[in-house]
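Case study 2.
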Amino acid sequence: YLWITEFNKNTPSELHALLNHSLIEKMLLSVRGNPGGLLDSVGKICAFFADNPDTIVVMLKSRTQEKIFRARDFEKEYLGILKHYKKKVVVLIDDRSASASEIFANCMREELEAPLVGEQSYGKGTVQTTIDLNNNDLLTITTEEYFLGKNKARVDKIGITPDYLVKLPDSLENLEIDIPLIEGLHILLNQ
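Prediction:
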């Protein structure tokens, strides 16, 4: 069981070091509560699992242009190094999985045929740019929207629907039993 809490600059190297020489046969990966992070970080991780260097990870669209980012655009040296996990991964998501987490979950679904378990994700599919106004004020503006994977699916304000919807009833949210985790393990062990 591996829980990725954010996609920062160290996440790809840490994940690579953990998994590249491990004896792990199957994985339950969680991005629950993960608000996202760096596009370059999640792109590299998607490239680790990519079966094809031309795999579309994400498309960014502004008012004037579209940019398609493929697995090979993020990573060359370790491209596809973890693709042997195909059909050996389950990914947990929830309503706080956003942005880079949604890119990751979609990539795992498309590349590894990993089922997604949990709740509808948050639906943050925009890129912001921050401008320093030189008076100690910052202006943040939305400059691009991103679309996921080979189908270039819109995620903003929609989110990703899990393959197995598992939501705790409000009356059980403080229960110490992690029902989505148990369901994810059950699915993983029966793959």
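The first strand starts at residue 2 and ends at 3.
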